[in-house]
Design brief:
The complex is a heterodimer. By secondary structure, chain A is an all-alpha fold. Chain A has a single domain, classed as Four Helix Bundle (Hemerythrin (Met), subunit A) (Up-down Bundle), CATH 1.20.120.1200. Chain A contains six helices and no strands. In chain A, 10% of the residues are buried. Chain B is globular and about 70 Å long. Chain B has one domain. The chains are: A mainly alpha, B mainly alpha.
């Protein structure tokens, strides 16, 4: 490897690291916005930021399929459904509840969460680190993910279908017309 | 291969039954009575299949196909039997309940079957993601069952609270799973126990954190002390048979996976024993304090469920991880399930339309009007309180003697104190039924199922007490 190539590799890694911190920061900011915004629409929009930056993090990990799925399913389909429902309800400023003492609740929550966060920080620091680089061999492709899903993770894959059925029945029961089927 | 099939047959029967009921409800050709009969048949068949599939030792059904993610042991089989019985008796008493309250549809029975299939999977799962999905199958079905009555405001409140807190639990569980995967590169129980055996539990920080979050999730689901606040409102808001089902089957399933997880390795258990010790004590006494203040029967039973969680935690602290059989835990779960289901079965035909009879005062003089029902309720309450010839007494006896064997004398003594305290609210209802004149009279017409269910369970309270258990 020539000297130039080594420097380029180091630059790539540094760039990937900066990208990681940028995306991680954005995702946290989006999540904070989701909690702090008063109007649900703004909350939903800032949640989109979180979902998209998570997709970026997946891409940094070379998880190509997961990156696409995250964008299409979460940031695309699910968020547009949520936003559609919020718009459908046409929420005005006077519909929003009075949020008295919100600051106090947030402060209390922060006090509770701080030790857990410190605990988590210690744990995450103990995990072995590795460089962000592109992994070849088709890692993260549809084919590879599919093989793993159907070979090693067959059982969870199958029982998710039961979970979806339950969700389906639940939607019919809780949101269907009242008094039908008696 | 046939053996693997037989081991998973109960799960298959319940799943197929659930899908069958779901399809029939979509076609709309099944009456409610028929649906409850179908679901009773499904549970009875699955129960028989579970008994006949007798195994000894640890078998991983379809181990190569499912990658060893399921494990059937005698412990999971008996837990499965308790869950299936809970499903059976819930379907039976629901039939009477919905004679009076007309909000049910056939989907109700289908959801109970779905919940039971999730619970069966939960008891058998040996891998965290499988466990999470099973936990969600179970919880999602129960959220829907709690909110089934859409005209009632307390139900809506209950389902919202339960859904929010359940989502928290799910998040904690996934977070724990992610940490364990990050540390060990695997989520399988076998990999966790080899890693602990190789390095020691406290030398794996990711595992410590992951196990912490997962144990918090389990404590949440069984309503142990710092996470018990939701349980009273949720149990109160749900309809009577659903409350009975939640209190028994759900607790059995979660305690089964909790025990399976905790007993993976003596190192894992010994690290948490001290915390579980305090949680058990606080759960028992906190539950007792809440129960003493309640005026409605359902809220009192919900709070007493917290106390019983405390006794079960004593059993978890006391059992040894080396030769884990879990017979004490299962015995207590069976005894508790029988008495709780029994009292909810009796309530399902006594409460009347819109659950009119709910306060303690409404039960005044019940012994004069309905002597047999009052006698049955007395049997169940005495069993919960732990009065000698009943199953509840034997369960407590086994738990306390195993605690003494394990050297946890403090826990044993506090367990006895707590069970004496609990007499206060159990006897209060008995006194109301027997030593007061009836104030208001209203009769409920009911089908034969509710009373028959109550009778069977009352007999079971004594039958189970005769069953010997080696600690």
């Amino acid at each position: 490897m020539t000297k130039k190539n080594i420097r380029k590799g180091a630059l790539d890694i540094m760039f990937a690291e900066w990208l990681f911190f940028g995306l991680a920061g954005l995702s946290v900011l989006g999540a904070i916005g989701l909690i702090l915004f008063r109007h649900p629409m703004n909350g939903a929009m800032s949640f989109v930021v979180t979902l998209i930056s998570l997709a970026g993090l997946y891409a940094l990990l070379s998880a190509k399929l997961l990156f696409a799925v995250q964008l299409i399913v979460y940031a695309g389909a699910i968020m547009s459904l949520i936003i559609f429902i919020i718009m459908f309800l046409n929420i005005q400023e006077h519909d929003l509840p009075d949020e008295e003492g919100k600051g106090l609740f947030l402060l209390g929550g922060a006090v509770v969460i701080t030790p857990i966060a410190l605990f988590l920080y210690k744990i995450v620091k103990s995990l072995p680190g590795s460089d962000t680089k592109i992994i070849g061999n088709g890692f993260g492709d549809v084919r590879e993910v599919g093989l793993i899903l159907f070979k090693n993770w067959l059982l969870p894959f199958e029982i998710v279908s039961i979970l979806l059925l339950v969700a389906l029945v639940g939607a019919v029961v809780l949101a269907g017309k009242k008094g039908v089927g008696k | 291969m046939t053996r693997d099939f037989l081991l998973l047959l109960p799960l298959g029967i319940v799943g197929a039954g659930a899908i069958l009921l779901m399809l029939r409800s979509a076609l709309g050709k099944l009456t409610l009575e028929a649906a409850s009969l179908v679901s009773m048949c499904v549970f009875a068949l699955a129960f028989i299949a579970q008994i006949l599939s007798g195994t000894i030792g640890h078998v991983s059904p379809y181990g190569s196909v499912f990658n060893g993610m399921l494990m059937v042991t005698d412990f999971t089989r008996v837990a499965g039997l308790i869950i299936l019985a809970c499903g059976f008796f819930t379907s039976m008493s629901s039939q009477s309940y919905f004679k009076e309250n007309g909000f049910a549809t056939v989907e109700y029975y289908s959801l109970i079957a779905f919940a039971v299939s999730g619970m069966l999977l939960l008891t058998m799962s040996q891998e965290l993601i499988t466990a999470f999905i099973s936990l969600e199958i179970m919880s999602l079905s129960i959220y829907i069952l709690v909110g089934f009555n859409r005209t009632c405001v307390t139900c809506a409140e209950a389902v919202l609270k339960y859904l929010m807190l359940g989502a928290f639990t799910g998040a904690f569980f996934t977070m724990g799973t992610a940490l364990i995967y990050g540390g060990l590169n695997s989520t399988k129980f076998s990999a966790i126990s080899t890693a602990i055996a190789a390095h020691g539990f406290l030398h794996l920080p990711a595992l410590v954190g992951g196990a912490f979050f997962i144990i918090v999730a389990f404590l949440f689901k069984v309503a142990a002390f710092p996470f018990h606040a939701w349980v009273v409102d949720v149990y109160d808001g749900a309809s009577v048979p659903v409350t009975g089902f939640m209190a028994t089957a759900l607790k059995t399933a979660v305690f089964a996976i909790f025990a399976n997880f905790l007993m993976l390795d003596p190192g894992l258990k010994s690290a948490w024993v001290n915390y579980l010790f305090y949680i058990a004590i606080l759960t028992m006494f906190g539950g007792n304090l809440i129960a003493i203040g309640q005026n409605t029967l359902k809220r009192m039973l919900a709070a007493s469920g917290i106390v019983h969680t405390g006794y079960l935690l004593i059993a978890l602290v006391a059992v040894s991880a080396d030769h884990f059989t879990g017979s004490v835990i299962l015995y207590y779960l069976a005894a508790y399930a029988v008495s709780t289901l029994g009292i909810f079965a009796a309530l399902s035909y006594l409460t009347g339309n819109g659950e009119m009879r709910s306060q303690f005062d409404d039960f005044k003089g019940l012994a004069k009007k309905r002597p047999y029902s009052a006698a049955a309720i007395t049997v169940f309450l005495l069993s919960m309180a732990g009065i000698p010839p009943t199953a509840g007494f034997m369960g407590k006896l086994y738990i306390i003697s195993s605690a003494i064997q394990a050297g946890q004398v403090t826990l044993a003594v506090l367990g006895i104190v707590s069970s004496i305290l609990s007499m206060w609210y159990y006897l209060r209802l008995i006194i109301n039924m027997y030593f007061h004149e009836p104030e208001e009279t209203f009769e409920t017409e009911c089908s034969v199922f509710g009373p028959v269910c109550t009778l069977i369970l009352a007999v079971a309270v004594f039958a189970i007490s005769l069953y010997p258990v080696t600690i």
